[in-house]
Amino acid sequence: MERKGTETGLAAMAASYEKFDPAAYLQYNYTPPRADFERKDSVVPWKLACLHRAFNEADVSGELLVDIGSGPTIYQVLSGCEVFSKVLLTDFLEVNRQELRHWLQDDGGCNLDWTPYLQHVCKLEGRRPSECAVKAAKLRQVITDILPIDVHQSQPLAKDALPSGGADCLVSCFCLESVSPDLSAFTRALGNIGGLLRPGGHLLLIGALGESYYFGGPDVRIPVVPLTEAQVCESLKEKGYTLIRLEVYTLPEDMKVGVDDVTGVFFAKARKN
């Protein structure tokens, strides 16, 4: 019975994404006030700072970085492309993979101008914002592919997608809790993606705290597992990760713009045992 209930929950989650609108999602979450680069308390700059620090720590290294559930965004690999020579983007939805291809091909079809993000990360790296075009070219050069993924499968990617040893690092932002019907599914998904990572490799995980839904488009309400910090830590431990650092951001009132009920965001840096 439990397995049937799980399958029903996963099918319901997949159905909730059928009308996902990348353009609307980007507008809701990746424009001001949530992406205000002049504000120290804006959530997007906080996420970029967490990722910048993690990717620049000496223990995060190797050749291959895999982004789990990229969505229609690239911000999560802007720092990683300076460390890893190969970056693989993945998403369950074809509309999101198409959005990523528009950026990769630089064909003018993107629903968001990522220039301010590139400029901000250049500043974090001690470079002039005007070097953002160089950074964009570097990222396009190291992205090796954009592939379908299903984090609820024991083998989330196609069999030959990765080298036999696995990826050196995974990054995943707002994916697992947003596609899981309950905490146990979230925890299993953590274990599934861990199978893509080499022993000793790192997971950089960003996710929502206290969120029960978000809008993936006009009238497209998508359920989310409302996580606590303790649950994130316990799920990582259960699935064979050693937590190195957990940071938490609390959403200011004016960042609660009516597109979700998130109360905070966590950043976790963990190592696969």
Automatic annotation (TrEMBL):
InterPro entries to which the protein is assigned, alphabetical: NNMT_TEMT_trans, SAM-dep_methyltransferase, SAM-dependent_MTases_sf
GO terms for biological process, alphabetical: methylation
GO cellular component terms listed in the entry, alphabetical order: cytosol
MF-aspect GO terms: phenylethanolamine N-methyltransferase activity
Species: Takifugu rubripes
NCBIfam families documented for this protein: GntF_guanitoxin (NF041360)
Record protein name field: Phenylethanolamine N-methyltransferase
One Pfam family cited in the UniProt record for this chain: NNMT_PNMT_TEMT
Sequence positions that bind S-adenosyl-L-methionine: 25, 30, 69-70, 75, 91, 96, 150-151
Keyword flag Glycoprotein: no
UniProt keyword terms in alphabetical order: Methyltransferase, S-adenosyl-L-methionine, Transferase
Superkingdom of the organism of origin: Eukaryota
Family in the record: Belongs to the class I-like SAM-binding methyltransferase superfamily. NNMT/PNMT/TEMT family.
Keyword Methyltransferase appears in the UniProt entry: yes
PROSITE patterns referenced in this protein's UniProt entry, alphabetically: SAM_MT_NNMT_PNMT_TEMT
